[in-house]
Amino acid sequence: MAVAGCGPATVQPPAPDAPTVVSLNPCSDAILAEVLPPERLLAVSHYSHDPQGTSMDLALARSFRATGGTVEEVLALDPDMVVGSVFMPPATRAALADMGLRVETLGIASTVAESQAQVRALAAAVGEPERGEALAARIGQAAAQLEQGRARAAPATVLWQPGGIVPGEDTLVGELMHRAGLASHTAARGMHQADYLSLEQVLADPPALLLVAGAERAQRHPVLDALPQTRRAAFDPSLLYCGGPSVIRAAARLGEVREGVSPHHGYALR
Q: φ and ψ at 117, to 5 degrees?
């Protein structure tokens, strides 16, 4: 600001600890959009521009360029760093490294603590540790608040995910459900991560609360209306797979659902 108006503006290259970044992972997209100044996030993954694949606000995601993640696309953007998934093909990672790019990868966080650690590590890697600490603190606060308001009598709950599968206990969303005081109906019956739950199983052994995150025919079947003791609520699929800011939104939604549960009325799917 002190030099504004003093002559032609000169664009300075970023400092070594302030790299420009291309993100190839929808989970890192959401974290980096929070911790990086927007001019340093050169592109996000194409998944974040897809309403069915994004884990962040769609309008925010579309304010950034999207990339399909090919080596050619990344090189054309000329970043200092690339952040991808731990499942990035080794050949792609090697090619990017050979071109002098720093490559960082992000795995799947299965707990709130792991998500906070990922945020801190990624923020430090891009030279924004204070922003990372602030986001990690917000995640911790959201999870703690969810636990403080947990239901006294834990309703047996099914989270019915896209494809008709259910989450396991050792998942991030499973931890959030536990913190909210929502007992896993499927885990109590021996089901594990990604096990398939049929409509017939739901009808034969209905839970007290059914969180519907998919859009399959069975998950929207009118016969579910014949379960008067089962409350239903919608759960956005974008909250299922990533840590980072998604934890805050998932905790808020689970808190809303918990507060809306009534022992005397069906819970409308919304």
A: -65, -40
Phi, psi values for residue 13, rounded to 5° = -65, 150
pLDDT digits (tens, 9 = 90+) for 118-167: 999 999 999 999 999 999 999 999 999 999 877 677 899 999 999 999 99
Q: Cβ–Cβ contacts within 10 Å for residue 203, how many?
A: 15
* For range 20-46, the mean pLDDT: 97
| Neighbour count for residue 4 (Cβ, 10 Å) | 7
The identity of residue 18, as a single letter, is A
* Axis crossing angle, helix 172-179 with helix 112-125, rounded to the nearest 10: 130
Secondary structure class of 239 (helix, strand, coil): helix
Cross-strand bridge partners of residue 67: 45
Residue-level pLDDT at 150:
78
At residue 171's C-alpha, the angle toward residues 27 and 112, to 5°, is: 65
pLDDT digit string, tens, across residues 82-99:
999 999 999 999 999 999
pLDDT category at 8 given cuts 50, 70, 90 is: very low
Cα R_g (the chain), whole angstroms: 21
Is residue 214 a contact partner of residue 224, using CB atoms and an 8 Å limit?
A: no
Contact 55, 33 (CB under 8 A): no
Question: To the nearest whole number, what is the mean pLDDT of the chain?
Answer: 89
**CB 259 within 8 Å of CB 252:** no
How many CB atoms within 10 Å of residue 111? 16
SS3 call for 127: coil
Residue 78: C-alpha distances to residues 40, 41, 71, 72 (Å): 11, 11, 11, 10
